[in-house]
Write a structure and sequence with these properties.
Distance between the termini: 25 Å
Enzyme class: hydrolase
Radius of gyration: 19 Å
Bound molecules: 2-acetamido-2-deoxy-beta-D-glucopyranose
Number of strands: 10
Largest sheet: 6 strands, parallel
Helix content: 25-40%
Family: Belongs to the palmitoyl-protein thioesterase family.
Order of helices and strands: HEHEHHEHEEHHHHHEEEEHHEH
Number of helices: 13
GO molecular function: palmitoyl-(protein) hydrolase activity
CATH architecture: 3-Layer(aba) Sandwich
Low-confidence stretches: 6-33, 316-330
CATH class: Alpha Beta
Strand order of the largest sheet: 2-1-3-4-6-10
EC number: 3.1.2.22
Protein name: Palmitoyl-protein thioesterase 1
Mean pLDDT: 86
């Protein structure tokens, strides 16, 4: 795997990684007896981003504005931002999820919270779902995902001409998606081509498992998804990075055939608890206008207002409004 080695060397010594400030987003959590104390919020960023990047900091500030006193914890694989960004491309997702679980369980405030809220951007959305399914200690109340690949990707849209990491990563997946990339390349672990379904079931290191698609289902995954109060899935109307974009709604797209989640076995046989969650009104399919990860502050504020905040907050105070603008992130 010499090309992968070159990628690793490049990432370690290359200069394309923007320096990010080390300042932590973590605010003080006022965990007194006060019922108005907002639940902590964990955020998992997307491919090519870092936990302490400016965009993430702004999201944390908005969460604090919506619900003052919110402890915001951006999940990271490494305290050093450029290394955290590197880990969004490289690594074994079984280990990444286990690290997130361990970090949350060891955090002095998160570990004592009665519940937490979770916000996942792009691939971070399916990783947070894996946190719920595999760990859920502390349990997640509201899980909100934006442009996530819940049903995998067939391919990513074209990489930017200067994005060598993206190009090498995508090249490797298309070379041989079921080989060693399953333990080293993050997007390969949620690669899911319905035309290669048998190979996917056999070799997928992540998605086939957390989607309970194999013959033996994990009952814990279903129990934990059922415990969510809300699972809100945003799809970007003009998403051209994630193919097919309907994966953000768990839709099956096989060639020209589209099967919405509610018509799929995964739902009708309730492999994941999604049908039960839907019947109690907890499963929400939403669209955001614009391109992949083009989220406006207004939309984020609506989401924070509707789904996050104190444990005993009033529910469904407002419906999210569409928004525009934002940054470009996988
Ligand atoms: C199901 O998942 C849980 C949580 O990850 C794990 O502890 C357990 O071993 C799994 N069960 C099976 C049958 O794989
Ligand atoms: C990923 O890591 C887990 C835990 O260390 C290991 O059991 C598994 O075999 C690894 N996956 C691959 C494809 O190497
Ligand atoms: C997708 O369609 C092909 C035929 O075009 C079929 O062989 C394959 O099993 C389908 N995959 C799934 C997951 O339904």
């Amino acid at each position: 795997m010499s090309i992968l080695h070159r990628l690793l060397l490049f990432l370690r010594f290359g200069s394309l990684l923007a320096a990010s400030s080390d300042e932590s987003l973590v605010h003080r959590f006022n965990d007194g007896d006060d019922d108005d104390t907002p639940l902590p919020l964990v955020i998992w960023h997307g491919l090519g981003d870092a936990y302490n990047a400016d965009g993430m900091r702004l999201v944390g500030e908005l969460a604090e504005k919506a619900h003052p006193g919110t402890l915001v914890y951006p999940i990271r694989m490494d305290e050093y931002g450029p290394r955290d960004r590197y880990d969004s491309f490289i690594g074994n997702l079984t280990e990444h999820i286990a690290k997130a679980c361990a970090d949350i369980a060891a955090h002095p405030i998160l570990s004592t919270a009665p519940a937490i809220d979770a916000l996942g951007f792009s691939q971070g959305g399916q990783f947070l779902r894996a946190y719920v399914e595999r760990c859920n200690k502390p349990p997640v109340r509201s899980l909100v995902t934006f442009g996530s690949q819940h049903n995998g990707i067939i391919r990513f849209g074209d990489c930017d001409t200067s994005d060598f990491i993206c190009k090498i990563a995508m090249g490797l997946i298309h070379g041989s998606p079921w080989g060693s990339v399953q333990s080293t390349l993050v997007p390969a672990q949620y690669f899911r081509d319905p035309e290669q379904y048998e190979d996917y079931l056999k070799y997928s290191n992540f998605l086939a498992d957390i989607n309970n698609e194999r013959e033996v289902k994990n009952a814990t995954y279903k129990e934990n998804i059922k415990k969510l109060e809300s699972f809100v899935m945003y799809m970007f109307e003009e998403d051209e990075k994630v193919i097919p974009k309907e994966t953000s709604w768990f839709e099956e797209v096989n060639g020209t055939e589209h099967t919405p989640l509610r018509a799929r076995k995964l739902y009708t046989e309730d492999w994941l608890g999604l049908r039960e969650l839907d019947r109690k009104g907890g499963l929400k399919f939403r669209t955001a206008p614009g391109a992949h990860m083009a989220i406006s502050d207004e939309l984020l504020m609506e989401v924070f207002d509707s789904f996050f905040g104190p444990l005993n907050r009033q529910r469904g105070r407002s419906e999210p409004r569409p928004g525009l603008g934002g940054d470009d992130e996988l």
